[in-house]
Amino acid sequence: MVKVIASSLRKGNVVDMDGRLYVVLNATNFHPGKGTPTTSVDMRRISDGVKVSERWKTTDQVEKATVDERAYDFLYEDGEGFHFMEPETYDQVVVSAEMLGDNAVYLQEGMRCWLKTFEGAPIAIEVPQKITVEIADTEPVVKGQTASSSYKPATTDRGLRVMVPPHIGPGTRIVINTDDNSYVERAKD
Question: CB under 8 Å to 130, separation ≥6 — which residues?
Answer without folding.
Answer: 175, 176, 177, 178, 184
